[in-house]
């Protein structure tokens, strides 16, 4: 077989293999996400839970990116809400185990850095999401900002002594523009 003919025969086989790998990697990513979530849920050590959240969060971001490319913003919102819930759980586990984040920063630093990454992810999604899908994502963003503030206050309490805490992460109704100047 001539080299040029061999290329034409090999090209469709290579494309089929690549497409198959894409499908398999999507299924494998979901399995990986489920396995990481299961490990995260069963972890009792707060520091280990915070460190495990790094891998789990990255897997959630990958899944959210896939759903975003498919324009499935409902799934994107659910994934980001689950990420926020996981951050909250890891933060609470850290506080319970080591309430002094300044003296025992293990886990606090990793969690805070990953929350920053999560905030960037939410910001990117908000830029592309249709208007009807933005309210839940805005709540996730608000909650992550409050959790990030809480983690920073735990890591650097003296720096935040005179600053008021970030507003509580609770749903709010839209403000009336006529009431506020």
The dominant shape is: flat
What is the rounded distance between the termini? 79 Å
Structural class per helix/strand content? mainly alpha
- Integer tally of domains: 1
Question: In summary, what is this structure?
Answer:
The chain is an all-alpha fold and 181 residues long.
Describe this structure as you would to a colleague.
The chain is mainly α and 181 residues long. The protein has one domain. The chain has 5 helices and no strands. Helix 2 (46-69) runs antiparallel to helix 3 (73-97) and helix 2 runs parallel beside helix 4. The longest helix is centred in the first third of the chain and has 40 residues, at 3-42.
Topology:
Blueprint (H helix, E strand, L loop, with lengths): L2 H40 L3 H24 L3 H25 L10 H21 L5 H22 L26
Helix pairs in contact: 1-2, 2-3, 2-4, 3-4, 3-5, 4-5
